[in-house]
Specification:
7 helices; 7 strands; 234 residues; Rossmann fold; 7-stranded parallel β-sheet; alpha/beta
Length: 234
Amino acid sequence: MSDAHGPIVLLTGASSGIGRALAVMLVDRGVTVLGVTRRPAALPPGVVPVPADLTQREDILAVFQQLGRINALVNCAGVAYLSRIIDGNPADWEEMWRVNVMALTLCCQLSLRHFPREGGRIVNVSSMSGHRVPPTGGFYAPTKFAVRAVTDALRAELKSAGSPVQVACVSPGFVDTPLLDQYFRGREEVLQKTRESMTMLAPEDVAAAILTILEAPTHVEIGDILLRSSDQRM
């Protein structure tokens, strides 16, 4: 993950949840963290702010236009609404697709120009909802299935091109983050009962899994990590 000038990680969603927890861990390890967020003031100490709205293609392009070398890209940014297929709000679908899929994919593509010759790593945060559709999966689950497909497609293309860049995916179950509050908006009593009935993953649990990928030897490529609380049934 590093070179002679020290490791640099571009991290989306760095001001909240899993991204924030990972940013803290990386800074503690002496890594330069470039934190992409709409809320620079919420970034943890030591993170270099990179203000951007990932729903806006122009903002994403601007991030990479001013970017130098990086050793890793971690896509933690995400949006989660309970929005059903049969009667959900298409505006919610569009926002989830733009952030969870389009922004992530564009960041993957543009990052390839910024890795050193010896390669680097890309880690995409998906979800257990990208491996099976839960009863309340709605349109969120398809976006996370798409993240897995993008990751697999990118890995195959890089292998075919002889690129040393490695691509991985991390798929957590319930994680107690602000994203969960967003997903359960209007159903706060259900979320409260869920929190009372199980010990959810902490953001730090998922961040530690991402660190395992980033810190693995260069000859070790980790493809997909699935993790959930031992209290979670599926």
